[in-house]
From TrEMBL:
<feature type="domain" description="NarX-like N-terminal">
    <location>
        <begin position="146"/>
        <end position="218"/>
    </location>
</feature>
<dbReference type="InterPro" id="IPR029095">
    <property type="entry name" value="NarX-like_N"/>
</dbReference>
<keyword id="KW-0812">Transmembrane</keyword>
<dbReference type="InterPro" id="IPR042295">
    <property type="entry name" value="NarX-like_N_sf"/>
</dbReference>
<keyword id="KW-0472">Membrane</keyword>
<dbReference type="Pfam" id="PF13675">
    <property type="entry name" value="PilJ"/>
</dbReference>
<feature type="domain" description="NarX-like N-terminal">
    <location>
        <begin position="27"/>
        <end position="108"/>
    </location>
</feature>
<dbReference type="GO" id="GO:0016020">
    <property type="term" value="C:membrane"/>
</dbReference>
<keyword id="KW-1133">Transmembrane helix</keyword>
<feature type="signal peptide">
    <location>
        <begin position="1"/>
        <end position="25"/>
    </location>
</feature>
<protein>
    <recommendedName>
        <fullName>NarX-like N-terminal domain-containing protein</fullName>
    </recommendedName>
</protein>
<keyword id="KW-0732">Signal</keyword>
Length: 259
């Protein structure tokens, strides 16, 4: 991977996913709305992952900053989506997201406390489901295969962070068959959606090139997601899932630009 690509990928991730900005572009199209609504799903999962990383002192300064910026970005994008859909059933669903988001936001903003981690995840699951419903409503309004691809690609971002947060919770000592099962399902869902994206006739050569990078990184994640010598390897999983997030964000934006 070239130094230029690494720099550009890191910049895109910081600008689009991590850093709040007062000059965020307004939503100007349905595909853009689907992309941003889909990113809300990812942020619900990323907040749990980074919260757990802070609790375990995994790249603490960086993880704390990522947690803070994910909260700010969720607020910012929720407001943008509300402005884009001022009336109708989608607006009602966005209000539901807002209601569910507030208790999650309060926990995430407070000092990290292991006793609050599972409660945070429970709220995140509610926010995820409600945010996903917004995406589906927007996709149905769009009514094209391209809208579906933006949704599917965007959902891969969420799955990367879902795998991360489930792994982090387990490495933090939360032993649950539910977490183990959800982690396996997330892996399988990511793999299945990746195959669907690979087979799309709408893919540009640039999209296919990036999907190839995702395949390679995901294969590495699959090999390393088990315990190493009976121990969890959260830092390695964090790095791998963050790479998947970076590339899938690039791909989602590329699908959006096909409009």
């Amino acid at each position: 991977m070239s130094k230029l690509y690494k720099f550009l990928s890191s910049f895109i991730l910081l600008f689009c996913l991590l850093l709040p900005t007062n000059s965020s572009a307004e939503i100007s199209s349905l595909s853009s709305a689907i992309n941003k609504a889909g990113r809300q799903r990812m942020l619900s999962q990323r907040i749990v992952a980074t919260y757990s990383q802070v609790g375990q002192q995994i790249q603490t300064k960086k993880s704390r900053k990522q947690l803070k910026n994910a909260i700010i970005l969720f607020d910012q994008q929720l407001n943008e989506l509300k402005k884009y859909q001022p009336i109708g059933s989608i607006n009602k669903q966005l209000k539901k997201v807002d209601v569910l988001w507030q208790p999650m936001r309060l926990i995430a903003l407070a000092p990290v406390n292991r006793s609050k981690a599972e409660e945070l995840r429970e709220h995140a699951e509610d926010v995820l489901r409600a945010s996903h419903r917004v995406v589906i409503m927007l996709q149905d309004k769009y009514g094209s295969r391209l809208g579906e691809l933006v949704n599917i690609s965007g959902r891969q971002r969420m799955l990367s962070q879902r795998m991360s947060n489930l792994y982090m919770l387990q490495s933090w000592g939360f032993s649950s068959s539910e977490y183990t099962g959800d982690y396996s399902r997330a892996l399988n869902e990511f793999k299945g959606a990746l195959s669907e994206l690979n087979n799309s006739s709408l893919n540009s050569s640039q999209i296919n090139k990036k999907l190839n990078k995702v395949r390679k990184e995901f294969a590495m994640l699959e090999r390393s997601n088990h315990k190493a010598n009976g121990e969890y390897i959260p830092l390695m999983i964090k790095m791998s899932t963050d790479k998947l997030l970076i590339i899938m964000n690039d791909i989602t934006m590329l699908y959006e630009q096909l409009e």
